[in-house]
Design goal:
Layout (H helix, E strand, L loop, with lengths): L4 E3 L15 E12 L12 E7 L2 E5 L10 E10 L6 E7 L7 E8 L9 E7 L12 E11 L3 H6 L1 H13 L3 E11 L12 E7 L2 E4 L10 E10 L6 E8 L7 E9 L8 E7 L6 E10 L4 E4 L8 H10 L13 E11 L12 E7 L2 E4 L10 E10 L5 E8 L7 E9 L7 E8 L6 E14 L1 H7 L17 H30 L3 H16 L5 H18 L6 H19 L9 H18 L4 H6 L1 H38 L4 H20 L2 H18 L8 H8 L3 H7 L20
Parallel strand pairs: 1-5
Antiparallel strand pairs: 2-5, 2-9, 3-4, 3-6, 6-7, 8-9, 10-13, 10-17, 11-12, 11-14, 14-15, 16-17, 18-22, 19-22, 19-26, 20-21, 20-23, 23-24, 25-26
Length: 737
């Protein structure tokens, strides 16, 4: 049961007659839908509902899959300052990866509730373009109650109330950790009698999707997800199981839910959940823990400026407590001071900016400063640090009554790049973090963490982010990833050519040195020399960097590549000349993209024409293949760049951690015979499932590399140079990290 709270400003529409000024609380229960419209090829729909007032979306329900008579039972509380604006209710059919289909709309006129207060309402859904179509009904329970205080006072203090509402709505009361272990006896959905199952989780706006397990009815995932718990009395986690199908819509395999109010906290619960509307069951481990140290306060009240509290925090993350609560790595405090020179997003030449601060899946935001291009927020946000390699993202938006918030600028700051106590101006970047946009934001950040815990957490799987955007085909991204892979391959080819030149005696001096080194190493080779040899490039690159040598050549090439990508986006707006091969390729890509964009309009024709159905299934399959190739190229290129960046000291903390690991490996292999090491490794592998049947497997080396930034990420996290006039005064502190 989701709860949303919104503050709405005064309306400017003039459809109904005027109402008495004042604040009202509108409580709505979205109960169910009846005989809704069919929008999917299977004869069903996946409906969800949106509420809008004055053109602004104030609520969105969860999606009910494959159901024309859905039951939501969701509640929303709204504060409205006028009954003149009707509540606009719209129903959509969710389409995976495509534009959602319209299923009907209706108006609820709030003035009709002024004298009745509580009312059960049935809304007939209509399509303005097809008024004679029967699109079903929605059942609502509506309660209207007046709020004390007149309109002017409410308008004057709207910003303050908005801040208080945000504060209550943003701070979570606990964390729900879910370990997806396995499923048993699932329903076969494919012609081969098997399925390719994956699982979707949803708690409010938080969503996760597991990986796909191919060709099995008894999949084992061994994945872990964390949700924030906002409601005091728990909530429901909706779980659905799907069969992945290339070339058509994924098949629904069943659903189940978890009532968190029935689970005790600080205890791990093993749940065997049978699937409704399907076959088989899911095996989960669910743990509810208390709230993390997350807070919002004014600039005058923050813990790290209090000497007593700062001392307690430094003790909490001191060396002596390195092995207590390994998940609690540290704490970060972000002071969002102000912004200057923001982009004007409104027709008045002003903006209504607010700022969103994100760390992994933790997300908090400031209040809105209206009609201002140089806002001052003066807010302090505190987050718990679960991974010191996380990136702090600060995004500035323009609040818009008529549509979703407009993007104004963004910065991404890795926690390990932060200089404690330094008040700094950051130039805002574009959404992709590849180029500048207008304006700067002033931040002051402090990070306190335990280095031992941070190092140990580096060797466990990285936390997944909430599902936001499904992958889509992009010719620019495909070309970029192909170029990155080509650079990695060329590097390997150059190394091979260099080694081959030693055999060819292109340089007698070099060949003699290589031959002597070869004989010396082979004659005296011991296994411990392998990790010892890997220390050599780390030490050599450190000496080069310490001597002042510039190692940013590759990054300059990557910046050029990203700039070329931006230029390609600009070229997409031009009409191509069919005379050249490049323009022909551009024209072909336009045709392909237009086809992708128009698929969701073709479903009616597909249902009645088998040949068209086969054609569009092939296009879906091509799209899946393109996305797979695009992702595979990115994966290969990223790991190649991360290995290089480990040896290049791009992140000194990780390079030092690699040195420690290689030194330990050298000592172990030197003093312990290899057969003992292999024996211990094998015994551990064979007995792991006996000792802990529900353990989540991981590869420490890949987990380590996942923390090293790729070249694209290094460019994205780079700070843009500012005009000297934006250099703020610096306030130095001791660096506890």
């Amino acid at each position: 049961m989701g709860v949303g709270i919104n503050i709405l400003g005064p309306g400017n529409a003039d459809t109904p007659p005027a109402a008495k000024p004042g604040m009202y609380q509108l409580d709505i229960v979205l109960k169910r839908g009846n005989n809704l419209a069919i929008r999917d090829r299977g004869g069903t729909s996946d409906p969800y509902v949106k509420f809008k007032i004055s053109g602004k979306e104030v609520f969105r329900s969860r999606t009910i899959n494959k159901n024309l008579n859905p039951v939501w039972d969701e509640r929303v509380s709204l504060l409205v300052d006028s009954l003149r604006e009707p509540l606009y209710v719209k129903v959509f059919d969710y389409d995976f990866g495509l534009q959602d289909d319209f299923m009907g709309s209706a108006y609820l006129y709030l003035e009709s509730l002024e004298h009745q207060r509580t009312l059960d309402v049935t809304l007939d859904l209509e399509d303005p373009q097809h008024p004679k179509h029967d699109l079903g009904t929605l059942e609502l329970g509506v309660t209207l109650s007046p709020k004390e205080g007149d309109f002017k006072e409410a308008q004057q203090h709207s910003s303050m109330r908005l801040s208080d509402v945000h504060r209550k709505a943003q701070l979570w009361r606990g964390i729900v950790s879910i370990s997806l272990i396995e499923a048993r006896g699932l329903k076969p959905m494919d012609a081969n009698g098997l399925s390719d199952p994956y699982v979707k989780f949803r708690l409010g706006h938080q969503k996760y999707k597991s990986k796909k397990i191919a060709k099995t009815l008894n999949p084992q995932w061994r994945e872990q997800f964390d949700f924030h718990l906002f409601e005091e009395h728990g909530g429901f986690i909706d779980i659905t199981v799907w069969d992945k199908d290339a070339g058509k819509k994924d098949d629904f395999m069943g659903r189940c839910s978890i009532d968190l109010s029935l689970l005790s906290k600080e205890h791990t619960h093993k749940l065997d959940l049978p699937l409704d509307e399907g076959e088989g069951m899911l095996v989960l481990l669910v743990t509810l823990t208390g709230a993390a140290a997350v807070s919002i306060s004014d600039l005058s009240v923050n813990m790290l400026d209090d000497p007593h509290e700062r001392h307690q925090i430094l003790q909490r993350y001191g060396v002596l407590r390195s092995f207590r609560n390994l998940k609690d790595v540290g704490v970060v405090q972000v002071k969002v001071i102000r912004a200057e020179g923001l982009m004007a997003a409104d027709v008045t030449g002003k903006s209504d900016p607010f700022c969103v601060v994100e760390l992994s899946n933790d997300r908090l935001q400031t209040h809105t400063i209206y009609k201002n291009l140089n806002p001052e927020w003066n807010k302090v946000f505190t987050f718990n640090v679960k991974d010191i390699h996380s990136v702090l993202e600060v995004t500035v938006y323009d609040e818009d009554r008529d549509r979703s918030a407009d993007f104004l600028g963004k910065v991404a700051i890795p926690l390990l790049h932060i200089q404690n106590g330094e008040r700094k101006a950051y130039a805002l970047k574009s959404k992709e973090l590849t180029g500048p946009t207008k304006g700067v934001i002033f931040l002051e950040i402090d990070v306190v963490f335990n280095a031992v815990k941070a190092g140990l957490r580096t060797l466990v799987p990285i936390e997944q982010k909430y599902i936001e955007d499904e992958p889509r085909v992009s010719k620019q991204l495909l070309l970029q990833n192909f170029t990155r892979v080509r650079r990695c391959i060329l590097f390997l080819i150059n190394v091979g050519c260099y080694i081959n030149s030693c055999f060819e005696w292109d340089s007698p001096q070099r060949s003699i040195c290589a031959f002597m080194l070869f004989v010396l190493v082979v004659w005296n080779f011991e296994l411990y020399m392998i990790p010892l040899a890997l220390l050599v490039p780390l030490a050599w690159n450190y000496i080069l960097i310490a001597s002042g040598k510039d190692t940013s050549v590759d990054l300059l090439a990557m910046e050029d590549l990203l700039e070329d990508e931006d230029e390609d986006y600009e070229k997409d707006d031009k009409v191509p000349n069919p005379g050249s091969s490049e323009d022909w390729q551009l024209s072909a890509s336009h045709v392909f993209e237009d086809m992708l964009a128009s698929w969701h309009f073709e479903w009616i024709h597909v249902m009645v024409d088998p040949e068209r159905k086969s054609f569009f299934n092939k296009l879906y399959a091509i799209q899946d293949v393109c996305i797979s190739v695009q992702s595979a190229l990115d994966l290969v290129a990223s790991y190649g760049e991360r290995i290089k960046n480990t040896f290049n000291w791009t992140v000194p903390f990780l390079s030092c951690l690699a040195i420690v690991a290689l030194c330990v490996a050298t000592v172990l292999v030197y003093y312990i015979p290899l057969r003992y090491i292999i024996l211990v490794w094998g015994v551990n592998k064979f007995t792991k499932k006996l000792r802990d049947p529900y353990t989540i497997d991981n590869n420490e080396l890949l987990d380590f590399l996942s923390r090293v930034p790729s070249d694209v990420q290094v460019v994205q996290y780079r700070e843009l140079k500012l005009d000297p006039s934006h250099s703020p005064n610096k306030r130095k502190k001791n660096n506890p990290g």
